[in-house]
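BACKBONE GEOMETRY TOKENS:
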Amino acid sequence: MNIIIAGDGEVGFHLAKSLTDLDHNITVVDPNSDLLKRLESETDLLTIAGSSTSPQVLADANVADCDLFLAVLHDENINLMSCVLAKKLKAKKTVARITNAELLLPRHRDMFRDLGVDEMVCPERIAAKEITDLLNNTVATEFFDFSGGLLTMYLIRLEADSPVVSHSVKELQLLYSTLEVRIVAILRNGMTIIPHADTVLQQGDLAYLISRSNQMERIKQVAGKTDVAIKKAMIVGAGRVGRYAAMTLEDRMRITLFEESRPRCEEVSTLLHNTLVINGDATDIELLKEEGLENTDAFIAVTDSSETNVLTCLHAKKLGVKRTIALVENTGFISLSQDIGIDTIINKKLITSSYIARFIVKGDAVSSKWLSGTNAELVEFNVGKWAPATRKPIRDIALPPGATIGGIIRGRETIFPTRDTQIKARDKVVVFALPKVMEQVSRLFD
């Protein structure tokens, strides 16, 4: 696949690096020549310095042969214009990163499709939805639904008192024979492990589980987790993520929103009706205490500073807040933040990558999820009529090392496969895979 990435910073840089292990021809267009030099030093990608709204620059990038054009600059207007131009210049599919969620309304989507913008992704809106979902499910530190919730991925941190710690995967299958859960990956000390029968779970492991949603009560028992009732939450940062989250949550719980910028406080006050908006510095712990931090159930830090978000979440955790969520834009901070006890990390680069991945993976990818703290991915494939995976049982389909099947959806039925399971055409298969084998995996189901 020929892919052009138009960016102006870390999102485009992250996407380009994430795709270097896949078998695609990638060209990066960026006005920042210094960033391109850094990218060239770390990858073999073709780079072009210039504006993606320039027809000549797009022509130099060979846009006429482009299968997928991704515009992920910080300015949504440039992204939209770039996609329109790319489409006019014969790019097959275009995707624009936007910040104004209003553009996602059906009438606006249709209008932009007519202009040449095939898809739009709003990372801030997706991040806000993840926050609200996580406050409704306080056992997992991350989760993602496949096929409308027929299968769900849960990320569970294993604490010292978890009944599964010190047991191997094989032992767990014997101890909990009726529990319909598949452990597809473990994140341990920054390393991604695809478990086998003899893999022993350890304290501090982050376990990625695939299960049915109706198994949540059993998962809580096995993992030694209990639900936390969220009645009061503090949000730090009134940017788009913070305001979207507050707008969704304010009718369900008591929300206090902190913002250092007075003009931004005044702006969000007109949008929020049941939220207490405070103009103040959230790194001032005494201010947070005065506003009831120690009696708060959830603390969400989504400022533009990863350092501020991590630091304030750590203070909140130390003072007994049950649930902490931090927006961390520096991907190097993700594993560190998880290791030091922050419950959930949200990263807009990973959110953007997850959305875009379905257009990049060969085969019929229905949905995908890039996993925090690892470069691996969960992808839901539609199995093609003549797919190689339908010809033999799973034990014989040559699934490469670095990949594992988490579950199969057949109509409304969910299947946790064994080595003898036969995949059928029109099944949906959820696969965990490292980037270097994703191309090989996708061919099995196409």
